[in-house]
Amino acid sequence: MLLSLKRVSLTFRRYTSTMPLPSYSSTPLPPPLSTHPSADDGKPKIDMEGGSLPSPEASKSSVEQAKRFAAWEAVDRHVLPSHKIIGIGSGSTVPYVVERIVQQGDERNKDRVFLPTGFQSRELIVSSGLNLGDVDQYPTIDVTLDGADEVDHKLNCIKGGGACHLREKVLAEAAKTFILVADYRKNVQYLGTNFKPGVPIEVVPFAYAKVLQNLRHILDCPKANLRMAVAKAGPVVTDNGNFIIDAPFDQERMKEPYTIMAQIKMLTGVVEVGLFCHMAQAAYFGNEDGSVTARRVDELPEVIPAKTQ
Ligand SMILES: O=C[C@H](O)[C@H](O)[C@H](O)COP(=O)(O)O
């Protein structure tokens, strides 16, 4: 018991890390993936070269390694041989999920169908040689694995840093099991601790000004703003042709994310809110030392020691 508490406090110290989070614009587009036999474990590995997956150099950084360890642990525990319909999330951590699924082998994957949460994950699925489907064909999913911008102590999370949260929420809701994977910087007591841009909100384009006005004046979020594109003039346009508003609420209000989510969702013109409350069954956070912290609702965190991969 004492040992577990010590681990918990060690883990929580790590949560307060103030390392900067990646900005939206740094979210890479997906590269073509190919697999090749690995010299070390004999399993196929995704070739990270070229395009949008992390480069081999980048993937050696402690943050990238943390993402990989979290993703691999989650796949090993939750993508079971009986699972045939699998949801694949978006972002820079999810490629490591796909990497590990590919390592499960052709025999296991040949009868499976993988459902994407957007353009990026669709490309990941196709270029990894996995079978592509969509949630309109398979509205019940065995397991969905996805990244997160931040996860609180109750496994509520902020998603949508890459503007994919509408489709992500549909696939999370459709899944019998919804699992989060992230690096240690995302593991916090309360949302908004490290992730500062605010709650991502997908809105119908013609309603954006009204939603902004309502966020600022009715929901008292004066810094709510339209997300602008980086290598394009004008706003970010989602895979669904909508705009994104980022709404930073103060820390006190972020302690009740469900209330904020419900209030935002009531605004006319809002399509979906990037707050996922009471949805995830478990979250896996890769740590700097190679260990992985696994968290489940209402349970003490489990620290899985670093493995020789
Ligand atoms: O819209 C993007 C998604 O919600 C991502 O899952 C989220 O931003 C986390 O991405 P990353 O794994 O790159 O931190």
UniProtKB/TrEMBL annotation:
Coiled coil: none annotated. Pathway: Carbohydrate degradation; pentose phosphate pathway; D-ribose 5-phosphate from D-ribulose 5-phosphate (non-oxidative stage): step 1/1. PANTHER family: RIBOSE-5-PHOSPHATE ISOMERASE. It comes from Pterulicium gracile. GO terms for biological process: D-ribose metabolic process; pentose-phosphate shunt, non-oxidative branch. Keywords: Isomerase. It holds the Pfam family Rib_5-P_isom_A. Belongs to the ribose 5-phosphate isomerase family. One of its GO terms (molecular function) is ribose-5-phosphate isomerase activity. It catalyses: aldehydo-D-ribose 5-phosphate = D-ribulose 5-phosphate. InterPro entries: NagB/RpiA_transferase-like, Ribose5P_isomerase_type_A. It comes from the Eukaryota. This is Ribose-5-phosphate isomerase. CDD domains: RPI_A. Residues 38-48 have a biased composition (Basic and acidic residues). Residues 21-60 are annotated as: Disordered. GO terms for cellular component: cytoplasm. Its EC number is 5.3.1.6.
